[in-house]
Amino acid sequence: MSSCFDCQQLISAADKLCCYECKNNYHYSCVGYTKTSFGKLAAKAKSNWKCPACKLPPKNDATTSVKSIFDSPPPHAPLPSMAGNLDEYFRNMELSLLSKLKTELVSLIEEKILKDIQKKVGAIPQVKTHLDEITQSLSLLSDRYDTIIAENQQSREKISRLEKTVLNINNKCVYLEKCNVAFEQEIHEFEQASLNYRIEIVGIEKLPGENLKEVISKVGDIINVSTSEIEWARRTTTTRPLKSSAKPAPIVVKFKASGADSRDTWLAQRRKIMQVTSDKITGGLATNKIYINEALTKVTRTLLWNTKKQLHGVYKYIWVSSGKILVKKSEAFLDSMLMYTLVMGVEVEECWFTLARGCARGLILSL
């Protein structure tokens, strides 16, 4: 495959135009033709076609055309008949030569400009091809940009829906948490209420073959209360190994359903046994002090222990009444009491003031 003599680009056989004189090959577009317009020329003109360079008059060097101008006599310039007309003769000859030189220079410039224009025009199809490719690329990028914008908008909508869903779930979790707290509180209150007919006797030594009925009867005699409403009594059991110096397991006393008043009487008279030791009841060697307490759930028992630990030295009195843990700084603060409740495993302190000082004082004295 040959190349175009004008643009130096490869040229195919179908797009090739050969000069009759110099035999150089050209693109149709490089010499100002199209294949259709060249085909409209006469057969002789097509077979004898010359390139723009060969159409110019022959030049041996840069001064050829100028010499030819000066070598040929100026047209219509008659020789002078008298010496007085020599100046006019040479002036006319100079004007004639200048006019011919101007014409030749204009022709050369026009040929050069035409050749440059043909070369630039030949490059237009390539430029157009590049422009078409750029336009197509921009169109693809525009479509892709529109797709990305649409996907981004969809993502934003999904995120907004998810945020609303998460908010609703959080609200439901808060609501369920509150319900769970209330439910746990109700369960705790129910468990504590189930122990309303029970008391615990702490500090009595456990001897082999002990008779709890006799032990409970001796305790009742000491504090002057009846044991007729007691349904059963037994020691609490534990799976943990006990040390030799460990305190004896408490005795749980269960009253009959009709023995609520009897239970309250036992609790009201429990101060009478605070000076009595275990050996006075069992005849054993242990001298533990004996206490009669309300039966408490594991949660309330743990809360009572933590309350005594945290408020030690701050509050003088810490006690339990009807499953509630009450504290008081001193006798001077009969109007101020604190109640601890358990909410989701966290101890919460609620403070209230009693409206009747006498009621509070009566509560303290009864305990």
From TrEMBL:
<dbReference type="InterPro" id="IPR001965">
    <property type="entry name" value="Znf_PHD"/>
</dbReference>
<dbReference type="InterPro" id="IPR013083">
    <property type="entry name" value="Znf_RING/FYVE/PHD"/>
</dbReference>
<feature type="domain" description="PHD-type">
    <location>
        <begin position="1"/>
        <end position="57"/>
    </location>
</feature>
<dbReference type="InterPro" id="IPR057251">
    <property type="entry name" value="FP_C"/>
</dbReference>
<feature type="coiled-coil region">
    <location>
        <begin position="145"/>
        <end position="172"/>
    </location>
</feature>
<dbReference type="InterPro" id="IPR011011">
    <property type="entry name" value="Znf_FYVE_PHD"/>
</dbReference>
<dbReference type="Pfam" id="PF25298">
    <property type="entry name" value="Baculo_FP_2nd"/>
</dbReference>
<keyword id="KW-0175">Coiled coil</keyword>
<keyword id="KW-0479">Metal-binding</keyword>
<dbReference type="InterPro" id="IPR019787">
    <property type="entry name" value="Znf_PHD-finger"/>
</dbReference>
<keyword id="KW-0863">Zinc-finger</keyword>
<protein>
    <submittedName>
        <fullName>Uncharacterized protein LOC114242852</fullName>
    </submittedName>
</protein>
<dbReference type="GO" id="GO:0008270">
    <property type="term" value="F:zinc ion binding"/>
</dbReference>
<keyword id="KW-0862">Zinc</keyword>
<dbReference type="InterPro" id="IPR019786">
    <property type="entry name" value="Zinc_finger_PHD-type_CS"/>
</dbReference>
